[in-house]
Amino acid sequence: FLALVLSHAVNGTFYSQGLRDGQWLTTISKYLVPIWVGVVSEGNSRRLDSINGQVRVLQADIPVDNGVIHVIDRPINPTELVDLFKCESDFL
Known about the structure:
Elements: H1 2-6, E1 24-26, E2 34-42, E3 45-51, E4 55-64, E5 67-72, H2 78-87
Antiparallel strand pairs: 1-2, 2-3, 3-4, 4-5
């Protein structure tokens, strides 16, 4: 479970306004899985739209005690996560 969570978290706080379309971020999992964000510009504002071009962002910029979260419609890179779990001896 921890590997799944860490593969969806990055170091730092990233609000939609501070992201640019196509920007790469690296997760904090021990495998340093790279992800890229899709940002849509709407006038003077920006909206976080997708992750890796496939995962949709349902709600962005939700402040929490230690940063910000973005709600997505499904896990990021599910096939990569399966491979990640296969490598985890604790998971087997």
